[in-house]
Amino acid sequence: MALNLKKLSHKPEMLAPGHRACSGCTAPFMIRLALKMVEDDEKLVTSIATGCMEVVTTIYPFSAWKCSNIHCAFENSAATLSGAEAAYRVLAKRGKVKEKFKFLAMGGDGGTYDIGFQSLSGAMERGHEMLYICYDNEGYMNTGIQRSSATPKGAETNTSFAGTAKPGKEQHRKDLTACLVAHDIPYVAQASVHNIRDLGDKIYKGLHCGGPAFINVLAPCHRGWRIGVDQGVEYARLAVEANFWPLFEVEKGLYKINYKPKTQLPITDWLKGQGRFKHLFNDKNKHIIDELQAEADKKWKQLLRREAESLEDAKAAAPAQA
Amino acid sequence: MSTTAVSKGAGSKFTPHEIMGLSGNEAAAEALKQVNPDVAAVFPITPQTELMHKFAEYVANGAVDTELINVESEHSAMSATVGASAAGARAVTATSANGLALMWEIVAIASSLRLPIVMPVVNRAISGPLNIHCDHSDTMGCRDLGWIQLYSEDSQEAYDNMIQAFRIAEDKSVMLPVMVTFDGFIISHTMERVEIIADDGVVRKFVGEYKPENYLLNAQHPVTYGPLDLPDWLFEHKRQEVQGFLNAPEVIKKVGREYGQITGRSYDLLENYRMDDAELAVVALGSTAGTAKAAIDELRDEGVKAGLVKIRCFRPFPGKELCATLGRCKAVSVMDRSFSFGLEGGPVFNEIRGAAYGAGLKVPMVSHIYGIGGRDINVTQIRGIFEGLKKLASGGRIETVENYVGLRE
User: Fold this and answer.
1) What is the mean pLDDT of the segment spanning B59-73?
2) Structural domain includes residue A103
3) Chain A positions in Cβ-Cβ contact with residue B226 (cut-off 8 Å)
4) Are B330 and B279 in contact (CB under 8 A)?
5) Do B83 and A88 touch (CB under 8 A)?
6) A171: how many CB neighbours lie within 10 A of its CB?
7) CA–CA min distance A20, chain B (Å)
8) Domain B270-405 belongs to what topology?
9) pLDDT at B11
10) Which of A33, A188, A302, B335 is deepest in the core (most CB within 10 A)?
11) What part of A 109-128 touches B (C-beta under 8 Å)?
12) Residues of A with Cβ-Cβ distance to B66 under 8 angstroms
């Protein structure tokens, strides 16, 4: 479904205003968009991991959720929702639930890449018909900006300081999207909050692919990235233009890159202006910038190869033309 | 599993039953089959594994149409059970020891969300070091996590408790999850004579249809479960949980009576065995109650006024009922199958002594810790405990509060 923004604007908002997210936070509008990606006759049950989006939307006695939402704990958004999805299947079979329901789990990168990795992997492997969206802001931001396995190399956080002995985080980020591709589920994608047309399309596909789906969404946190309150979306865009965060999808194992920059920006265009990378521009740390550039280039080439292979695979699988 | 179908004669006021040879695991699985819950999350752990094997077989053969979720850990087992229950389903899982420890965090969340989950827990020693045999360190360790706990003496009770657990958990004045425990291997793997209600329909009618009030799959009234509950509200919500426990005893007794009306086997919070004129008493829970009964029968034959108080329901704790019975005794031993490290005496002992203080009891009371990691407990050893009680009853001093049975020192 190509996203129809006009039609979308007439759909009711399912995440009420008045929640306590920071001004300039990029995650809530991703959620608002996601909650509109169901058909009119479909209801949603959502689950959310402990984290910013949970604590800002559900401070008792208030809830910003106009659809059903469950928060259980930090590491089990996927497992919890898998139970709700199983409940739906059996209650629908027994005629106790008549409406059509879709299932959407969410978590930040801490709750997804790290502590919730096993729970996510299990739920995907079991084939529950649910979409998991990771809003990836590259760190544990709710607890006060600590490094996660999604934090890029060199970034300074409160558990990976840039000091005289250490240059910030010492490892490259985990490629979680690749891990999920390896689960051979019907739909996996990477998206960004700056491109809502692409993001909306992917969420719709994920919710309607008939099986488990996963989308990794880059959602900058201006507090953790040390950028201006109004710069979150712009820095998401720069990450994509620098091929640090390519937009692509893997449908039934076939790769498709959804956006190819006409001219790839140097990684420094994304790094500069972010306070967490400030120290990388000292001569002493310049090699880290080179490593980040090399890593981005390597990953992008890998992706191009996989897309080319997928095109060939698709051609080979298509019935012979008369 | 061997089956001999025997129905009570025509004219019996009880529902027809079948007599089967079942292990505790099989008996609990049989109860689950008859209830046919909506969702079951399963994960293997010794000695519980066989329970869910059996149930998975029922699912595969169409004996139930439960959705089986083969989760990747006990943490996810309880998480999925919470999700299913919050969604409006009757949901179950089962575990032992380390599995219970892994799901600990979510065990507490399940009760705080007031989800009427039923979970058989096959008692096993909490690691470490690793031990797969029975003690009560697992369920005693989570006695403050907000679950009702029913202990079973044998396979029959495991079956009976499982069926009653759904009614208790789902009672609108209770709305708390229930753990049905039975001793690992001693009960879980020992084949015993068990009376099974012959007609599944009778079980289903007794348990009733589950009608959730607030649930995720209610299209008309969406709900938010598990909000951020700050200092201005959490206290009130925990107090409401307390109310569930205050309401539970009457419900447990009522369900136990009604169960008795259809099966001939009634249940209370406690079982008093030869306690009417008992001067010396032991308190026990689980399979050891059966061993104690054998010891008491011998002692009674010898003219010793010995008795047993078996705790069936440990949470809510039946302090008043215990004191009413024990207050008439001259000496009491509380048998604990787990330690409470750093505290003198086991957990059950300390709860009873606390209740006894409140009730103004003066009866001398000692703690006997036994059976750790599956260490045997036998009739002779329990007779030994009574020997000690005799001395206390005739004015002897309590030398040590915490005593060990069957320990090499």
Assistant:
1) 98
2) yes
3) 58, 70-72
4) yes
5) no
6) 12
7) 12
8) Rossmann fold (3.40.50)
9) 63
10) A188
11) 118-119, 121-123, 125-126
12) 90
A212 touches A123 (CB < 8 A): yes
Computed from CA positions of residues A38, A42, A46, A52, in that sequence, does the dihedral angle turn out positive or negative?
positive
Residues 173..192 of A with a Cβ closer than 8 Å to B: which?
Answer: none
Q: Do A90 and B41 touch (CB under 8 A)?
A: no
The vertex-B140 CA angle with B136 and B143, nearest 5°, equals 155
Task: Examine residue A93 and state whether it is found in any structural domain, yes or no.
Answer: yes
DSSP string, A150-189: TSPTT--BTTB-B-SS-BS--SPPP-HHHHHHTTT-SEEE
* DSSP code per residue over B245-285: HHHHHHHHHHHHHHHHHHHS----SEEEES-TT-SEEEEE-
Domains identified in chain A, total number: 1
Q: What is the pTM for the complete model shown?
A: 0.97
- State residue B246 phi and psi, 5-degree precision: -70, -35
Q: Which amino acid is at A126?
A: R
* Model pLDDT for residues A107-149, shown as the tens digit of each residue: 999 999 999 999 999 999 999 999 999 999 999 999 999 999 9
Looking at residue B10, its pLDDT comes to: 52
Give the E-state strand segments of B103-147 in sequence order.
Answer: 118-123
> Looking at residue A31, which CATH number applies to its domain?
3.40.50.970
Write the CB contacts of B405 (distance below 8 Å, at least 6 apart in sequence): B335, B368, B369, B370, B371, B377, B381, B384, B385
Q: Which residue of A has its CA nearest to B209?
A: A96
Which tokens go with B91? Answer: 């949901």
Position A236 in a domain: no
How far apart are alpha carbons B129 and B288 in whole angstroms?
24
Q: Across the interface, do A87 and B38 touch by the CB < 8 Å criterion?
A: yes
Q: B interface mutation test: which of A41, A50, A58, A60 has the most B CBs within 10 A?
A: A60
A126 vs B69: CB contact, 8 Å cut-off?
Answer: yes
Contact list, B231 vs chain A (CB under 8 Å): none
With a cut of 60, say whether residue A171 has pLDDT above it: yes
Contact A119 B76 (CB under 8 A): yes
Question: What is Dmax (Cα atoms) for chain A?
Answer: 69
Burial of A159 (0-12, 13-18, 19+ CB in 10 A): middle
Residue count (chain A): 322
Structural domain including A148 reads 10-225
Opening angle at CA B79, ends B214 and B132, nearest 5: 135
Return the CATH fold of B16-210+231-263.
Answer: Rossmann fold (3.40.50)
* Sign of CA pseudo-dihedral A179, A180, A182, A188: negative
Both tokens of residue B277?
A: 């004129």
Question: Is any Cβ of chain B less than 8 angstroms from the Cβ of A97?
Answer: yes
DSSP bridge partners of B95: B121
Q: Mutation target for A interface from B217, B218, B232, B233: give the one with most A CBs within 10 A.
A: B217
- What ipTM was reported for this prediction? 0.96
Q: What angle do CA B145, B147, B151 make, to 5 degrees?
A: 120
Q: Does residue A111 lie in a domain region?
A: yes
Nearest CA in chain A to B112: A72
pLDDT digits over B107-136, tens only?
999 999 999 999 999 999 999 999 999 999
The β-bridge partners of A42 are A100
